[in-house]
Amino acid sequence: MAEADLDVVIRQIAKAQNKSLMAAVKKRRDQIMARAAKAKDKETRDQFRLIAKSTMELGTAAAKRLQNSAQNTADSYARAIRNAAEEAAAKKPSKKVPKKDA
């Protein structure tokens, strides 16, 4: 592999982090829902269900923020590399043939 584009690597890492975060959120939600199922009265069961719902919403929001941040970072990096390449090409001196005085 010659040279990895870091913006692609950033996106891949963010995708993996997003998957693991969502898996953890779903696991936590399921644990809370299990507590709701074991609850003795309706009020406690409803409270646990509300907590589970809030956990899922907050976890999803965190995952979205993580994904958006990674996308912005990857786009910014790609743009910076592209601009640097353009500047380097512009600064590259063209070969001039020296004039000979006769």
Helix content: over 70%
Report the count of strand segments: 0
Query: Which strand-content bin applies to the residues?
Result: under 5%
How can the largest sheet be summarized?
Answer: none
Class based on secondary structure composition and strand pairing: mainly alpha
Number of helices: 2
Series of secondary-structure elements, N-terminal to C-terminal: HH
Shape: rod-shaped
Overall pLDDT: 88
Radius of gyration, rounded?
27 Å
Low-confidence stretches: none
Span between termini: 54 Å
What is the chains' assembly state?
A: single chain
Please supply descriptive tags for the structure shown above.
102 residues; mainly alpha; 2 helices; 81% helix
In short:
By secondary structure, the protein is mainly alpha-helical. It has two helices and no strands.
